[in-house]
Write a structure and sequence with these properties.
homotetramer, 372 residues, alpha/beta, Hypothetical protein af1432, 3-stranded antiparallel sheet, 18 helices, globular
């Protein structure tokens, strides 16, 4: 949940907890499906456990902020690099897990259990994040959802009597997005961290030497992307954790660059930018006015001001029907699309995208000026 | 939850638990509203507690089944009779509570806390029934919902940032209806109990003496309705509890009336009628065919068969906008209708009625005949 | 928990819940022991499940009160009668379960899992009663206790690292006894119910006809003990439940016997006798004085007064070392007695009996007289 | 809980959570005592909240390890320095809180609520650590304990009927010590961290420059103790957090000192020393033999070996009667010492100290040699 603990102080759980939780749910899913006479071989079972344990291994510290600033490679690609490396070390024992993870294995439902509309990943993180954040609206009944899983033609389906549990799951997911993952304070904190890392990279590229840990420094000082991400770099990447980022920010509070110093200080002291969320787009004029005012009062350039005044878009679809529809297994053995099977096709709404726009700017502008 | 423990064995909680729970939530609601500078006098506070503690006191054992067979008076009317009686005993100390309960007091929100779209009654029973039944889909965040309550012009509203909690509440209510209160086995059990009591009344009216407890016997043997429900009858009504009904059914297993004996046996042994639920109406032809087959095989009259073969309709509206819309208090101080305030008016669906039809019939017909 | 709901209103769970819970724990125990390479055959496994599901089946309604008044046969004997009957119906499929239940099977640990210092029965009821009563002091970690189970020479032992969990279990058991099972209000309620049933039996034996359900009436009117408890009587016994007892008490409130009428009324209205608990024995003089005062004020005989004024003894040993010591399996493979293995033999105390004495008497005596 | 997450991965909660939890309990304690007519003024109430919120503020990262290596000043003294500083900033508003915290205020129970046998600190950390670690044996009923609090002569007492809750509290505390705080893996991890920091300090003192964050570096490079701990140092101390220590260890894995490199690596990779716990003291001969073997195999000096081979003592008294006895308020208004009031003086055992001895040494010695 990145910096969400700035909003929900209880949200201090780790990716390690999540990996163990997913593994636990996967064991239940395997047991349930076998009871329903879905054959899963010993090898497929082991591969499922390996794949779910490792599915997030490519996430660096503050993953999304890092990806948009310093490490220009998608975390799923890094996950596969790690798996390949482990596969070498373990003499090919991960080959099937990797095939399933990539979606190349012919039995589609195994991949769907790892990554799909009703995968063990989502079931664990929704329940876990709801629990630790205290956003009770996001709690789901993962036990029952798993009991409702079934397989037809190697494809995952939900038994008819589980339809209300799926409805609950989709609504919970929607609410977790708007109340936790897309909470305006989480959004601004993550955006500020991204800006901070972008600024650090920028300063480094102009020759400025910044204080930070050695592994983190490597990524700051080198241009890393998919083309040159070899095993040496992977080993360095594995050394990175949240401590590196937070420790760097703590040091950067005392540097002499206006942008880096202030952004770092604001994050460390939880004195974040003001954020306004709206269903309407933010006008360019509004942004310009804010920029001008801020440049003037702080005596900085417009380029610098853009690190403190920016807009963005957040959106969520609780149910992404297009990417992969959820199918209901009716009592008569037929399959029906979830939306059609729901009372009054009521779930159609949940497949529509909800979009909001946000604007971030320094508090002092609002307090000291007439701009807004 | 009536006979729902036949479906969910854990659902063994009592109306007494519910009354205490409502009282507890009401205390929180009063504290929250006062913190928001809604003035509530000591007298109004006490009246709220009295009214919520007593709001369900008019429910007899297996309330709805009883109301449709033996005690022809609505439980809310009996609640008021009890309150009036207590008011006499306590020298008028319940007068304000009764005014609020009846909706006659000028400050409308006090009544809404007792009986409305977001009253303490619903908040307690949804959470409690979800907990004890294990239907996790119905769990709600009553703490937060109460924190989001506010009052404008003596009318209850929800603070804007609570809109997702209301959404969750309405969806949870919808799911509790379809998974617990309207669960097909709950429906058939309640219908069978109603039929059993109707049959007992009918037999009594034709002069047959049935074994049962003395208070219960009084209601079986006399025609009681709103016109003659005096204090003596109220005192007798107060003696009734679930034990009377269950004990009577246990005795009636050994009586010589085919209908009463069989219905009683089936409920006591949890060997219920078969029930089929559908979104389409049940045809008369289907019912006739079942009746004919059953009459023939059991050598009984069509009138008797109707106690075992019958249809019905169940319906639910998660949000009954017409009876009383929920209003959102926006940050700018304006009020907005809940549906308009929701993302993409997404909640409009929840105010639409969902209707289903059910058909009950003896298991043996299905097993032994070609009828269905 | 009998009438404990008069003290702890939440304690409304049933013996059926308990049977399911024991079964669930037994499944965990079997899985754990097999993982530790304790061989348990399919037949033994099934027998364990049957035996634990049925271990309490001989309990009648308000079991202990009934046993000391109307049904003069021990509930374990009735359990065996039920099992034998089922064994006939199921062509001998319960034979092994019955052997294990009786303690006749050569592998002792199977019996210990059903009935012993650390059996599934205790683990379930302590946790369940603690949960429903709200006496959090009695909560135990049954999951971990089961994980610590092991078997040496067909006898149950606890792995060394589980010693603190056993300590916790014994302390929790001790606290549940003193805070719930032996709570003074539970004690007085149970004693009053026993007295009520004894009085009913006595009145019946003198020819008085009491109103009650037919199955209950059978036991009231006949002298039933181990010598004449045949299958017909077993069938009648199976019909009894709490409803019969409570319904009878409700009727007896209106009978003309001073003792029966008043005891019934007091239980139904939860207006119990006063009870005093002390570590010293109650003197005969104190009792006599109370009796005299009560006889005089109520104009009743000393024999009648004894139904309202009586003393008793309650005692508990958290750990009954003599009946069967708990053994710890040390890391070196040796077994050691639990007390010796505990820090500073600290657990010796828990094997000592704690005894207390109680005196019950009508409230009005205390209030109206100088006696006490 | 320091490095306990290496044993119990869930134990990832923070001191901030604990401070909020203590505050919450203190609010309940104040409300309970006032209901019992203990007068607590508005000023005393506020002072209690300030004192409990700040009671742990002097803890640095990995507090105990740090105190025994780098920052030679007790955390309670630093807490007072922080409070004094805040008191200046807030114009003396913390004066009463500081008096209470130090135990100088004449109403002793206010200090006992902050720091005593039954203070809010212990109640929160036992319940919290039990919850997050999963060591269910340590769970306590803090709600009820607080409800049993009372005050006689400005001194904290427990109402008689709360005696079983106190027993449960003391046993839970004892079990938490042996299963969590003094778990052998927690012990070895903390000892290794202390050794690592001591080595870093030693290397620094011999002129070696170690990579680490700037605030942490300040404490490594200067000799800080109570005599020179001024406001500037306090400000630097406030900047320290767990990130500094973990980041330093991560860097030190790559340094060229055998001791620092290996200890750092072992902690970061959770590849800890072997630890043996026993009730007997560890002999010098055993240690010498281990040291010799290790020196030889690794080609290091005995002084270096001592960083990997060492012994220690752990001890716990669940109830420290001498420092401050718990007093029970009997129903007759008299006070009685807890031990005397307990059944059979059973709690005397809990006031006896339990002592164990541990020996740490590298795994490879055990595996590769005949020494042990």
């Amino acid at each position: 949940m990145g910096l969400s603990y700035l909003v929900y102080p209880g949200a201090h759980h780790t990716r390690f907890h999540h990996a163990l939780g997913c593994m636990h749910l996967m064991q239940k899913a395997v047991a349930t499906l076998r009871e329903k006479n879905v054959s899963i071989s010993k090898e497929e079972e082991q591969a499922l456990y390996i794949a779910i344990l490792l599915h997030d291994i490519g996430h660096g510290p503050f993953s999304h902020a890092m990806e948009h600033s310093i490490v220009n490679i998608h975390h799923e690609d890094i996950s596969i690099l790690f798996m390949n490396k482990l596969n070498q070390e373990f003499d090919g024992k991960l080959s099937l897990a990797i095939e399933i993870f990539k979606g190349n294995y012919h039995r589609k439902f195994l991949h769907q259990l790892i990554s799909g509309q009703l995968d063990m990943d989502r079931m664990d993180y929704l329940k876990r994040d709801s629990f630790y954040s205290g956003v009770a609206e996001g709690n789901i009944n993962s036990e029952r959802l798993i009991q409702m899983l079934n397989v037809v033609d190697d494809s995952l389906v939900i038994d008819e009597k589980g339809i209300y549990s799926v409805e609950k799951f989709l609504v919970a997911r929607r609410l977790m997005y708007w109340q936790a993952y897309l909470h305006k304070t989480s959004i601004v904190a993550e955006a500020m961290l991204t800006k901070t890392l972008q600024r650090a990279k920028e300063l480094n590229d102009t020759g400025k030497k910044l204080v930070c840990g050695s592994a983190f420094g490597f990524f700051l000082e080198n241009k890393i992307d998919q083309t040159n991400f070899d095993n040496d770099i992977l080993e360095k990447f594995a050394r990175l954790d949240d401590n590196d980022v937070i420790s760097a920010l703590k040091e950067w509070q005392y540097c002499d660059d206006f942008v880096l110093k202030n952004l770092s200080e604001m994050i460390i002291n939880r004195d974040l930018l003001k954020v306004e969320v709206s269903s309407d787009k933010i006008s360019k004029e509004k942004i310009s006015a804010l920029e001008n005012s801020f440049c003037e009062s702080q005596n900085i350039t417009p380029k610098e001001a853009k690190y403190f005044i920016f807009k963005g878009k957040i959106s969520n679809k609780a149910y992404d029907k297009k990417s992969e529809p959820i199918e209901i297994l009716l009592k008569d053995g037929q399959k029906e699309d979830l939306i059609e099977a729901s009372d009054k096709s009521y779930l159609r709404n949940l497949s529509e995208e909800v979009v909001k726009y946000y604007l971030c700017f320094p508090k002092l502008i609002r307090e000291n000026s007439q701009v807004i």
